[in-house]
Design a protein that fits this description.
The chain is of the alpha+beta class. 29% of the residues lie in helices and 32% in strands. It has one domain: Electron Transport, Fmn-binding Protein, Chain A (Pnp Oxidase, Chain A), CATH 2.30.110. Strands 1, 2, 3, 4, 5, 6, 7 and 8 form an eight-stranded antiparallel sheet that branches.
Length: 133
């Protein structure tokens, strides 16, 4: 399923179930191997993209653990565009609440899924990485 969605995004058609999709590139936190995960994303006022570490498990998804384990090696692909290096930031407090309200309004299924989980879904802001040099 992931490989099919990745091909779709690379061909310029990045939607699934009414949501915009990007490909998140991470590195396995233990293996060091490259990983690609298609994820729904939401617009962010801070000139970036918001993704939600949702899922039915009692722990955060592997992609989130990989992302936070090697944040300096993350990038994303948007439909039909080359990869862009990004910096992840987990939102908290009032900033997370504002983002969650917008995400739940745009896609009520996220609020439904969150209601069935005992963990609070992390919301991660991805912003283009500023190269130092």
């Amino acid at each position: 399923m992931n490989a099919r969605m990745n091909r779709k995004v690379r061909r310029g058609r990045g939607t699934f179930m009414g949501m915009d999709v990007l490909i998140l590139h991470t590195v396995g936190r233990r293996s060091g191997q490259p990983r690609e995960t298609p994820l729904a994303w939401f617009a962010d006022d801070a000139d970036g993209w918001l993704i939600v570490a949702s899922g039915g498990e009692a722990r955060h998804p592997d992609w989130h653990l990989n992302l936070m384990g090697h944040p300096g090696r993350a990038s994303i692909e948007l439909p039909g565009r080359p990869a862009v290096a990004v910096t992840p930031q987990v939102l908290d407090g009032a900033e997370r609440e504002r983002a969650w309200k917008d995400i739940a309004a745009a896609q009520p299924r996220y609020a439904k899924y969150q209601g069935k989980s005992e963990r609070a879904y992390p919301i991660v802001r991805l912003t283009p990485r500023r190269e130092v040099g």
